[in-house]
Amino acid sequence: xxxxxxxxxxxxxxxxxxxxxxxxxxxxxxxxxxxxxxxxxxxxxxxxxxxxxxxxxxxxxxxxxxxxxxxxxxxxxxxxxxxxxxxxxxxxxxxxxxxxxxxxxxxxxxxxxxxxxxxxxxxxxxxxxxxxxxxxxxxxxxxxxxxxxxxxxxxxxxxxxxxxxxxxxxxxxxxxxxxxxxxxxxxxxxxxxxxxxxxxxxxxxxxxxxxxxxxxxxxxxxxxxxxxxxxxxxxxxxxxxxxxxxxxxxxx
Length: 252
Hints:
Layout: H1 2-13, E1 29-38, E2 41-56, E3 61-71, H2 73-79, E4 81-89, E5 96-105, E6 108-117, E7 120-127, E8 133-138, E9 144-145, H3 146-152, E10 166-173, E11 176-191, E12 197-207, E13 219-223, E14 230-237, E15 240-250
Parallel strand pairs: 9-10
Antiparallel strand pairs: 1-2, 1-15, 2-3, 3-4, 4-5, 5-6, 6-7, 7-8, 10-11, 11-12, 12-13, 13-14, 14-15
Protein backbone atom coordinates (compact mmCIF):
# COMPACT_ATOMS: atom_id res chain seq x y z
CA UNK A 1 0.00 0.00 0.00
CA UNK A 2 2.93 2.37 0.53
CA UNK A 3 3.65 1.97 -3.21
CA UNK A 4 0.02 2.80 -3.94
CA UNK A 5 0.32 6.07 -2.02
CA UNK A 6 3.59 6.86 -3.75
CA UNK A 7 1.99 6.20 -7.13
CA UNK A 8 -0.99 8.39 -6.27
CA UNK A 9 1.43 11.12 -5.28
CA UNK A 10 3.32 10.78 -8.55
CA UNK A 11 0.08 10.95 -10.51
CA UNK A 12 -1.00 14.06 -8.65
CA UNK A 13 2.12 16.03 -7.73
CA UNK A 14 3.20 16.52 -11.29
CA UNK A 15 0.70 19.28 -11.95
CA UNK A 16 0.79 21.30 -8.75
CA UNK A 17 2.33 24.66 -7.99
CA UNK A 18 2.20 27.35 -5.34
CA UNK A 19 -1.12 29.15 -5.62
CA UNK A 20 -4.12 30.35 -3.64
CA UNK A 21 -6.34 27.57 -2.36
CA UNK A 22 -9.87 27.95 -3.73
CA UNK A 23 -10.97 24.30 -3.98
CA UNK A 24 -10.14 22.52 -0.72
CA UNK A 25 -12.37 23.03 2.31
CA UNK A 26 -12.12 22.04 5.95
CA UNK A 27 -14.51 19.20 6.82
CA UNK A 28 -14.16 17.23 3.60
CA UNK A 29 -14.23 13.43 3.52
CA UNK A 30 -13.44 11.36 0.42
CA UNK A 31 -13.67 7.57 0.50
CA UNK A 32 -12.14 5.26 -2.11
CA UNK A 33 -12.04 1.55 -2.87
CA UNK A 34 -8.46 0.48 -3.63
CA UNK A 35 -8.44 -2.41 -6.11
CA UNK A 36 -5.77 -4.59 -7.72
CA UNK A 37 -6.03 -6.68 -10.88
CA UNK A 38 -6.14 -10.32 -9.77
CA UNK A 39 -6.60 -12.95 -12.50
CA UNK A 40 -8.08 -10.37 -14.83
CA UNK A 41 -10.56 -8.90 -12.32
CA UNK A 42 -10.25 -5.63 -10.38
CA UNK A 43 -10.56 -6.88 -6.80
CA UNK A 44 -11.26 -4.37 -3.98
CA UNK A 45 -8.68 -4.94 -1.24
CA UNK A 46 -8.76 -1.83 0.94
CA UNK A 47 -10.52 1.41 1.79
CA UNK A 48 -8.69 4.71 1.46
CA UNK A 49 -10.10 7.75 3.30
CA UNK A 50 -8.99 11.35 2.81
CA UNK A 51 -10.14 14.04 5.26
CA UNK A 52 -9.50 17.71 6.05
CA UNK A 53 -9.81 19.55 9.35
CA UNK A 54 -8.84 22.98 10.68
CA UNK A 55 -6.44 22.93 13.63
CA UNK A 56 -5.04 25.81 15.67
CA UNK A 57 -1.66 26.10 17.36
CA UNK A 58 -0.44 28.85 19.64
CA UNK A 59 0.88 30.71 16.58
CA UNK A 60 -0.98 29.51 13.48
CA UNK A 61 -4.16 28.14 12.01
CA UNK A 62 -3.40 25.10 9.84
CA UNK A 63 -5.31 22.69 7.67
CA UNK A 64 -4.80 19.08 8.70
CA UNK A 65 -4.85 16.72 5.71
CA UNK A 66 -5.01 12.98 6.34
CA UNK A 67 -5.01 9.86 4.17
CA UNK A 68 -5.71 6.46 5.74
CA UNK A 69 -5.62 3.02 4.11
CA UNK A 70 -7.17 -0.05 5.75
CA UNK A 71 -7.57 -3.49 4.23
CA UNK A 72 -11.07 -4.92 4.27
CA UNK A 73 -11.53 -7.41 7.12
CA UNK A 74 -11.52 -10.51 4.91
CA UNK A 75 -8.04 -9.61 3.63
CA UNK A 76 -6.46 -8.89 7.04
CA UNK A 77 -5.53 -12.54 7.55
CA UNK A 78 -3.58 -12.55 4.28
CA UNK A 79 -1.94 -9.12 4.46
CA UNK A 80 -3.08 -6.57 7.02
CA UNK A 81 -2.63 -2.90 6.14
CA UNK A 82 -3.06 0.09 8.45
CA UNK A 83 -1.40 3.11 6.83
CA UNK A 84 -1.75 6.71 7.95
CA UNK A 85 -0.37 9.76 6.11
CA UNK A 86 -0.78 13.30 7.47
CA UNK A 87 0.22 16.80 6.43
CA UNK A 88 -0.26 20.13 8.22
CA UNK A 89 -0.42 22.93 5.67
CA UNK A 90 -1.07 26.63 5.29
CA UNK A 91 -4.83 26.89 4.49
CA UNK A 92 -4.21 29.49 1.77
CA UNK A 93 -1.15 28.14 -0.06
CA UNK A 94 -1.34 24.47 1.03
CA UNK A 95 2.42 24.57 1.62
CA UNK A 96 3.35 21.97 4.26
CA UNK A 97 5.01 22.63 7.59
CA UNK A 98 4.79 19.09 9.01
CA UNK A 99 4.35 15.67 7.41
CA UNK A 100 3.84 12.36 9.22
CA UNK A 101 3.72 8.80 7.91
CA UNK A 102 2.87 5.73 10.01
CA UNK A 103 2.55 2.43 8.15
CA UNK A 104 1.85 -1.17 9.07
CA UNK A 105 1.83 -3.64 6.19
CA UNK A 106 1.97 -7.30 7.18
CA UNK A 107 4.96 -7.44 9.52
CA UNK A 108 6.56 -4.29 8.09
CA UNK A 109 6.33 -1.04 10.08
CA UNK A 110 7.69 2.43 9.49
CA UNK A 111 7.24 5.83 11.11
CA UNK A 112 8.46 8.97 9.42
CA UNK A 113 8.25 12.70 10.12
CA UNK A 114 9.29 15.70 8.02
CA UNK A 115 9.61 19.16 9.51
CA UNK A 116 9.71 21.73 6.69
CA UNK A 117 11.98 24.73 7.24
CA UNK A 118 12.34 26.74 4.04
CA UNK A 119 14.30 24.60 1.58
CA UNK A 120 15.38 22.16 4.30
CA UNK A 121 13.57 19.14 5.72
CA UNK A 122 14.40 17.79 9.17
CA UNK A 123 13.56 14.09 8.88
CA UNK A 124 13.00 11.50 11.61
CA UNK A 125 12.70 7.83 10.65
CA UNK A 126 11.93 4.68 12.67
CA UNK A 127 11.66 1.18 11.17
CA UNK A 128 10.75 -2.02 13.01
CA UNK A 129 13.65 -3.39 15.05
CA UNK A 130 15.89 -0.53 13.91
CA UNK A 131 17.11 2.51 15.85
CA UNK A 132 15.53 5.88 15.13
CA UNK A 133 17.52 8.07 12.75
CA UNK A 134 17.45 11.79 12.02
CA UNK A 135 18.84 13.77 9.10
CA UNK A 136 18.48 17.07 7.27
CA UNK A 137 18.29 17.36 3.49
CA UNK A 138 17.71 20.10 0.95
CA UNK A 139 14.67 20.36 -1.34
CA UNK A 140 13.67 22.66 -4.18
CA UNK A 141 11.29 25.50 -3.42
CA UNK A 142 8.38 23.89 -5.28
CA UNK A 143 8.72 20.43 -3.69
CA UNK A 144 6.00 19.21 -1.34
CA UNK A 145 5.09 16.08 0.59
CA UNK A 146 2.83 13.39 -0.80
CA UNK A 147 -0.36 14.38 1.04
CA UNK A 148 -0.08 18.14 0.48
CA UNK A 149 0.51 17.66 -3.24
CA UNK A 150 -2.63 15.56 -3.55
CA UNK A 151 -4.67 18.51 -2.34
CA UNK A 152 -2.66 21.15 -4.22
CA UNK A 153 -3.67 19.46 -7.47
CA UNK A 154 -7.25 20.57 -7.06
CA UNK A 155 -6.26 24.21 -7.47
CA UNK A 156 -4.86 23.71 -10.98
CA UNK A 157 -7.12 25.34 -13.58
CA UNK A 158 -7.24 22.66 -16.27
CA UNK A 159 -9.79 24.68 -18.25
CA UNK A 160 -6.87 26.79 -19.43
CA UNK A 161 -4.82 23.81 -20.66
CA UNK A 162 -4.91 22.28 -24.15
CA UNK A 163 -4.76 18.52 -24.85
CA UNK A 164 -1.14 17.46 -25.09
CA UNK A 165 0.13 20.28 -22.86
CA UNK A 166 2.57 19.13 -20.16
CA UNK A 167 3.95 20.43 -16.88
CA UNK A 168 6.84 19.22 -14.72
CA UNK A 169 7.00 19.29 -10.90
CA UNK A 170 8.58 17.60 -7.88
CA UNK A 171 7.35 15.47 -4.96
CA UNK A 172 9.33 14.43 -1.86
CA UNK A 173 8.93 10.76 -0.87
CA UNK A 174 11.23 8.44 1.12
CA UNK A 175 13.62 11.38 1.68
CA UNK A 176 14.07 11.88 -2.07
CA UNK A 177 12.81 14.32 -4.68
CA UNK A 178 11.13 12.86 -7.76
CA UNK A 179 10.66 14.63 -11.07
CA UNK A 180 7.31 14.10 -12.78
CA UNK A 181 5.72 15.16 -16.08
CA UNK A 182 1.95 15.43 -16.61
CA UNK A 183 0.11 15.48 -19.92
CA UNK A 184 -3.42 16.85 -20.13
CA UNK A 185 -5.52 14.57 -22.37
CA UNK A 186 -8.89 16.32 -22.41
CA UNK A 187 -12.17 15.31 -20.75
CA UNK A 188 -14.01 12.04 -20.14
CA UNK A 189 -17.10 11.04 -18.17
CA UNK A 190 -16.51 8.60 -15.29
CA UNK A 191 -18.48 7.32 -12.32
CA UNK A 192 -17.72 9.23 -9.12
CA UNK A 193 -19.47 7.36 -6.32
CA UNK A 194 -22.36 9.25 -4.71
CA UNK A 195 -21.60 12.21 -6.99
CA UNK A 196 -22.90 10.20 -9.95
CA UNK A 197 -21.36 10.30 -13.43
CA UNK A 198 -19.08 13.33 -13.77
CA UNK A 199 -17.22 15.00 -16.58
CA UNK A 200 -13.56 14.81 -15.57
CA UNK A 201 -10.19 16.14 -16.62
CA UNK A 202 -7.97 13.25 -17.78
CA UNK A 203 -4.27 13.49 -16.93
CA UNK A 204 -1.55 11.06 -18.07
CA UNK A 205 1.56 10.82 -15.89
CA UNK A 206 5.20 10.05 -16.62
CA UNK A 207 7.92 9.97 -13.96
CA UNK A 208 11.62 9.34 -13.55
CA UNK A 209 11.03 6.11 -11.66
CA UNK A 210 10.88 2.39 -12.37
CA UNK A 211 7.69 2.13 -10.30
CA UNK A 212 5.42 3.21 -13.17
CA UNK A 213 5.03 1.23 -16.39
CA UNK A 214 3.70 1.96 -19.87
CA UNK A 215 2.75 5.03 -21.90
CA UNK A 216 -0.52 6.72 -20.95
CA UNK A 217 -1.23 3.85 -18.54
CA UNK A 218 -1.09 5.93 -15.37
CA UNK A 219 -4.10 8.21 -15.32
CA UNK A 220 -5.92 10.45 -12.86
CA UNK A 221 -9.43 11.80 -13.44
CA UNK A 222 -10.50 15.01 -11.67
CA UNK A 223 -14.07 16.30 -11.68
CA UNK A 224 -14.31 19.24 -14.08
CA UNK A 225 -15.86 21.60 -11.52
CA UNK A 226 -14.64 23.98 -8.83
CA UNK A 227 -13.81 21.16 -6.37
CA UNK A 228 -11.76 19.06 -8.84
CA UNK A 229 -12.25 15.92 -6.76
CA UNK A 230 -10.10 12.90 -7.73
CA UNK A 231 -12.78 10.52 -9.01
CA UNK A 232 -10.55 7.75 -10.34
CA UNK A 233 -6.83 6.96 -10.28
CA UNK A 234 -5.51 4.16 -12.50
CA UNK A 235 -1.94 2.89 -12.21
CA UNK A 236 0.31 0.41 -13.98
CA UNK A 237 3.38 -0.95 -12.20
CA UNK A 238 5.86 -3.74 -13.04
CA UNK A 239 3.85 -6.32 -11.04
CA UNK A 240 0.38 -5.42 -12.29
CA UNK A 241 -2.36 -2.79 -12.48
CA UNK A 242 -4.83 -1.27 -10.04
CA UNK A 243 -7.03 1.70 -9.28
CA UNK A 244 -8.57 3.92 -6.62
CA UNK A 245 -12.30 4.48 -7.21
CA UNK A 246 -14.27 7.19 -5.41
CA UNK A 247 -17.20 5.70 -3.51
CA UNK A 248 -18.35 8.63 -1.36
CA UNK A 249 -17.67 12.35 -1.07
CA UNK A 250 -18.98 14.77 1.55
CA UNK A 251 -18.22 18.32 2.68
CA UNK A 252 -16.87 19.39 -0.71
